[in-house]
Amino acid sequence: MAERLLVVSATAAEAAHVPAGLPLLVTGLGKTRAAAATARALASYDDLAGLTVLNVGTAGALRPGLAGLFEPGVVLNHDLSADVVRALGYDPQERLEVGESDVVLATGDVFVSDPAVRDALAARAHLVDMEGYAVAWAAREAGVPVRLVKHVSDTADESALDWPTLVDASARALGTWLRDGAPPLAGR
Fold first, then answer.
1. Half-sphere exposure of 78 (CA within 13 A, CB side)
2. How far is CA 161 from the centre of its chain?
3. Using an 8 Å Cβ cutoff, are 58 and 167 in contact?
4. pLDDT at res. 99
5. I need a labelling partner for 94 at 20 to 30 A (CA). Which of 30, 77, 114, 140 fits?
6. DSSP string, 18-83
7. 137 burial class (0-12, 13-18, 19+ CB within 10 angstroms)?
């Protein structure tokens, strides 16, 4: 059976250049909206066989020199008190393996624009967004493979506040990548 895609993006601006004809879900900002919308969309399918969820969107670079498209291999739920939850005897599952890449994406409901927050996150991750973990969680719960493809829009500092003017460049890069057949992101 040929692979089918469900393209998932947080905002219409990030998905503005997704090629026509691809199934597209716009979830809204943040983990709760992303998880709920993705789960609801997956539940609407009669048959999930051969389906892959492809989460595309922007991300802030947590480390110097990161630019362009990345396909993270790990996604973290960064604003969860994981150590406290673990101490209470529960597994918070704050780290999900989603691919082969060494790139780590940190997801949280915090819009990172403070260099101190960015630097603290950089010890654990390369990129930061607000939906990737939630989309990956919902796909995993449904038993559906997921890919996360993020384009660096800013450096997760004061420049992040310019996101509305930067997002179209990221949306264009993601749209081109999709039009080119969503090729593997080797070396990323």
1. 28
2. 19
3. yes
4. 93
5. 114
6. SPTTS-EEE--SSHHHHHHHHHHHHHT-S--TTEEEEEEEEEEESSTT--SEE--SEEEETTS-HH
7. buried
SS3 172: helix
Strands 69-70 and 146-154: antiparallel
**Residue 159 CB coordination number (10 Å):** 14
Pair of tokens at residue 83: 């150590």
Give the pLDDT confidence of 133-158 residue by residue, as tens digits: 999 999 999 999 999 999 999 888 88
Sign of the CA dihedral running 142, 24, 46, 29: positive
Unique residue bearing structure tokens 């990129």: 127
Looking at residue 118, the DSSP 8-state letter turns out to be H
Name all domains of the chain by residue range, CATH numbers in brackets. 4-179 (3.40.50.1580)
Strand pairing report for 74-77 and 104-107 = parallel
Residues in contact with 161: Cβ distance below 8 Å, sequence separation at least 6, in sequence order? 113
pTM score, two decimals?
0.92
Closest CA to 5 of 37, 40, 53: 53
